Amino acid sequence: MKNRICIFFLLGSVTLSLSAQNHIQTLAFGSCSFQWTRQPMWKYIIANKPEVWVWLGDNIYANTRNMDEMARMYQRQLQNRNYKKLLAACKVVGIWDDHDYGANDVGKNYPEKETSQQLMLDFIGEPQNTVRRQQKGVYTTYDYGTTGEKLKLILLDTRYHRDNPGSDADMLGEEQWKWLENTLNTDDADVTIIGSGIQFASGPTFFEGWLNFPKSLERLKKMIANSKKKHIIFISGDRHLSEICRTDNLPSYPIYDFTSSGLTHSNFFMKNSYENSNRISPLNVKKNFGIIKIDWTLKKLILESRGKNNQLFFSKEIGFGEIE
Fold it and tell me: FRET partner for 87 with CA separation of 20 to 30 A, picked from 9, 78, 79, 166?
């Protein structure tokens, strides 16, 4: 790895920086990759020349309590020829969702979560001596760039402490809530991207999402508003589709949520069932990955949903002035 990694400790998690001089112009992300099948997307992702790739969950499909079997599945993904090229081309970071955490839609009661956490961190190359290895959950932050071009990437763990869905159900657990509040209140970045395995800003749906945890959703919205932090957007996975949602019921400014899901498989045949009142982009149900380009000079974000042959499904420009 060409870039030096600096480690900073912060309230039970770890902040990583590529180096003081490296700023991000292109960030790529995605989710839902089946380790036993062909993975054609990596070469198209690399063609966009991202400095960072962000896994947003279902990085493998394990669905097991057998940790030896899960380790073999991660190794299968790491041995993919095209994925190795991505590892050589950019920094790889990430979080998990349910299928790589351990089981479909599972939360805090998954019995193997401690071992599963270590296997996931092994997969993304987390150093052995970080607080992220010791804390309960895989949440973390990454800082890139210098003044005027600072990017903070906040990655949430929506599995380890999660209750069963319900009106008073908790998503993050108190330790992670306190860490997130401190992270937002001390954030001096020019752009902040928050990664969540499940959608933050979708409209009513029977699929998983923050909306199924209304108390936690309102707590997160108030935390963002109280921080007075500007230039925040969300990225999410899980849904086997790509779309951009927007929630306007914050006291400060609208929050965009860019979902990219389905690196190896999508839900094309269910396309007519995906109603979403908060969607402000076209709906794409083909296999896809997400690209975020940051134009620091013109002060805008360009969100792109792309797929096989680098096909552009849709794009959205968001000026910094729209999210402050």
Answer: 9
